[in-house]
């Protein structure tokens, strides 16, 4: 015989509390519950306390949990990865392709570019220039709104219409030296722009210098620019993000934080929904956009992932819809497999792209302050081998800076940069070795060379291939490689950053902002340029490209750009062009992209077969 007293533990009470806390209506149900109990047992006259589990049949109120409904489940979404953290989405501060891509989705300027690289109206309805080419007048539409998305409710609020005054504010804010825009020099074609951008903010006449900048609002929908020199390409400059209108009220209120989600005010087809720095980036369709009815894709973005191989796994698992800007193209080691795969090969897209991949030399840092050494290292790159054995994307070996597809390119003129491409590679190496010996470094003896690239598996693979070529050509040199995260890398390369913190050789690419060699030769390697990471400084070069920008004769401009390329590539060898890009992308069959070779692909014009995507993902 024994007696038993049962005490239920707290876990049961907690379980019942959770049931009560659930919002659904409880329903009585008889269930068998396994409970942990404290038991007192009397055995042979001795009472003992033990812990046991017992099954108890009882009636309890059970709430069946229902998975929460995703409010975005039925919204058309283009999933991708973001290849690198955008350094900024401020139109005054963007300089890199990732930042500019995002800026162009959220903001619009006076003009833009279509898929054929033609200048087309955006905010402007029409524009005209004076006979002397110095005054440009743009008439604007009045139905484009500044909008803000409430992060708590998801609602969009129209702030007010975009006006000519916003254009004036945007241009002057970009030029203001306190803004520290590395791209402000692009606007030096505007009268007074350079004087304002280089002025001392503490000078007594600073306000007067700002007032003298050649941009003003004639009325709410008319903006006028006075140029320092004639520039037939000025409508292309008006399409650049540094001329975009900017929302002064938001910038004044939030300062440098104005581009954060919930604070940002935009005027384009998308706005920023979410930006968890270093983790993910998401854009959302602006329902108040003037052409919102024709924008199908409501959400665009995804995680920030630096590894192409990880992105490829997501793509093959149907978790992302594409591998292209602003993320990554296919991983280089997978190219043969992709081309051989029946499905992936159909999804592979390859086409010429007006961009140049190059290695730059920091020309103020020994030993690459010696032009002979720069030419030697440039000659010792087997460009065709890189394309055939590593890149495999139908790229073309580059021997000049300005890529094909731009006015003034010399890509078809093999007299420029011939030491990189004309001879057999064995002859190139022999020439490179002779040059290095002439410079006092036979076989590279005594040279320590650092190659630096931004973090990327593909850039690392290219750097390793070039390192191997240089090591074989110059066996006594010490060639090393480092990488930095994109935003840090850009700061390291800034012309004003200390040379001792810079590499000897840096990786960079350039894609056109508008299809003219002025955007390449003048705006990148003019000694005044914030993009001149090579710190290349040749007065005769500066004069050529500045004069070419003002010359109304197309034939003369072409000759001037050819001479400038000769100085940059042959005479000074400031950079080693490696290849002219191609688009190498993967698109799921349910995606219909629109590719713009100048302004960045306009996601607002893309389409998705939403039902096909959901079916492929089992939704």
Please give a structural write-up:
- The protein contains 20 helices and 25 strands.
- By secondary structure, it is of the alpha+beta class.
- The chain has 3 domains: 6-62, no CATH class; 77-321, D-Maltodextrin-Binding Protein, domain 2 (3-Layer(aba) Sandwich), CATH 3.40.190; 353-582, Roll (Dipeptide-binding Protein, domain 3).
- Strands 17, 18, 19, 20, 21, 22 and 23 form a 7-stranded mixed β-sheet that branches.
- α11 packs antiparallel against α14 (425-438), α17 packs antiparallel against α18 (539-550) and α18 (539-550) runs antiparallel to α19 (554-571).
- Mean pLDDT is 91; it is low at 1-24 and 31-38.
State the CATH topology of the largest domain: D-Maltodextrin-Binding Protein, domain 2
Mean pLDDT: 91
Secondary structure class reads: alpha+beta
How many domains? Answer: 3
Q: Major sheet, described briefly? A: 7 strands, mixed
Portion of residues in helices?
Answer: 25-40%
CATH architecture of the largest domain: 3-Layer(aba) Sandwich
Shape category: globular
Percent range for β-strand residues: 25-35%
**Termini separation:** 61 Å
Number of strands: 25
Question: How would you concisely characterize the structure shown here?
Answer:
The chain is α+β, with helices and mostly antiparallel strands and 619 residues long.
Q: What labels would you give this structure?
A:
4-stranded mixed β-sheet; 25 strands; single chain; disordered N terminus; globular; Dipeptide-binding Protein, domain 3; 3 domains; 619 residues; 7-stranded mixed β-sheet; D-Maltodextrin-Binding Protein, domain 2; 20 helices; alpha+beta
């Amino acid at each position: 015989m024994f007696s038993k007293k049962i005490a239920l533990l707290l876990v049961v009470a907690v379980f019942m509390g959770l049931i009560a806390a659930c919002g659904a209506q409880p329903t009585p149900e008889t269930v068998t519950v396994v409970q942990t109990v404290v038991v007192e047992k009397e055995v042979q006259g001795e009472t003992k306390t033990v812990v046991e589990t017992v099954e108890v049949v009882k009636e309890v109120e059970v709430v069946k949990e229902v998975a929460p409904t995703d409010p975005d489940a039925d919204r058309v979404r283009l999933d991708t990865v973001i290849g690198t953290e955008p350094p900024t989405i401020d139109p005054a501060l963007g300089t890199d392709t990732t930042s500019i891509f995002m800026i162009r989705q959220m903001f619009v300027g006076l003009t833009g570019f279509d898929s054929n690289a033609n200048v087309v109206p955006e905010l402007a309805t029409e524009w005209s220039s004076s006979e002397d080419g110095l005054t440009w007048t743009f008439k604007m539409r009045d139905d484009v709104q500044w909008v803000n998305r409430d992060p708590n409710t998801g609602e969009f609020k129209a702030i007010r219409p975009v006006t000519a005054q916003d254009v004036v504010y945007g241009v002057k804010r970009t030029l203001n030296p306190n803004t520290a825009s590395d791209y402000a020099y692009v606007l030096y074609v505007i009268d007074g722009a350079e004087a304002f951008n280089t002025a001392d903010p503490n000078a007594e006449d600073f306000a007067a210098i700002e007032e003298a900048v050649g941009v003003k609002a004639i009325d709410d929908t008319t903006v006028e620019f006075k140029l320092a020199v004639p520039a037939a390409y000025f409508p292309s400059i008006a399409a650049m993000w540094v001329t975009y209108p900017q929302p002064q009220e938001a910038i004044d209120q939030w300062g440098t934080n104005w581009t954060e989600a919930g604070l940002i005010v935009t005027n384009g087809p998308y706005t920023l929904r979410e930006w968890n720095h270093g983790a993910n980036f998401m854009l959302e369709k602006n329902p108040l956009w003037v052409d919102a009815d024709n924008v199908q894709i409501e959400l665009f973005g995804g995680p920030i992932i630096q590894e192409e191989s990880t992105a490829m796994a997501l793509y093959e698992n149907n978790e992302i819809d594409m591998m292209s800007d602003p993320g990554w193209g296919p991983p280089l080691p997978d190219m043969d497999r992709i081309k051989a795969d029946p499905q992936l090969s159909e999804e592979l897209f390859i086409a010429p792209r007006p961009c140049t991949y190059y290695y730059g030399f920091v020309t103020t840092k020994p030993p690459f302050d010696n032009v002979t050494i720069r030419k030697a290292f440039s000659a010792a790159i087997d460009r065709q081998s890189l394309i055939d054995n590593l890149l495999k994307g139908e790229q073309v070996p580059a021997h000049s800076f300005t890529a094909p597809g731009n006015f003034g390119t010399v890509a078809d003129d093999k007299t420029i940069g011939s030491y990189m491409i004309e001879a057999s590679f064995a002859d190139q190496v022999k020439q490179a070795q002779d040059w290095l010996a002439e410079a006092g470094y036979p076989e590279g003896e005594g040279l320590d060379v650092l190659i630096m690239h931004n973090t990327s598996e593909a850039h690392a693979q290219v750097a390793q291939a070039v390192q191997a070529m240089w090591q074989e050509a110059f066996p006594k040199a010490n060639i090393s490689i480092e990488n930095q995260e994109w935003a840090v890398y850009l700061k390291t390369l800034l012309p004003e950053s200390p040379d001792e913190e810079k590499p000897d050789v840096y990786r960079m690419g350039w894609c056109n902002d508008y299809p003219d060699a002025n955007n390449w030769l003048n705006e990148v390697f003019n000694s005044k340029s914030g993009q001149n990471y090579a710190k290349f400084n040749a007065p005769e070069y500066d004069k050529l490209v500045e004069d070419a920008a003002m010359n109304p004769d197309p034939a003369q401009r072409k000759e001037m750009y050819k001479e400038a390329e000769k100085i940059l590539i042959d005479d000074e060898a400031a950079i080693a062009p490696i290849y002219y890009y191609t688009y190498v992308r993967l698109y799921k069959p349910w995606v219909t992209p629109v590719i713009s070779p100048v302004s960045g692909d306009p996601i607002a014009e893309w389409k998705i077969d939403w039902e096909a995507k959901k079916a492929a993902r089992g939704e």
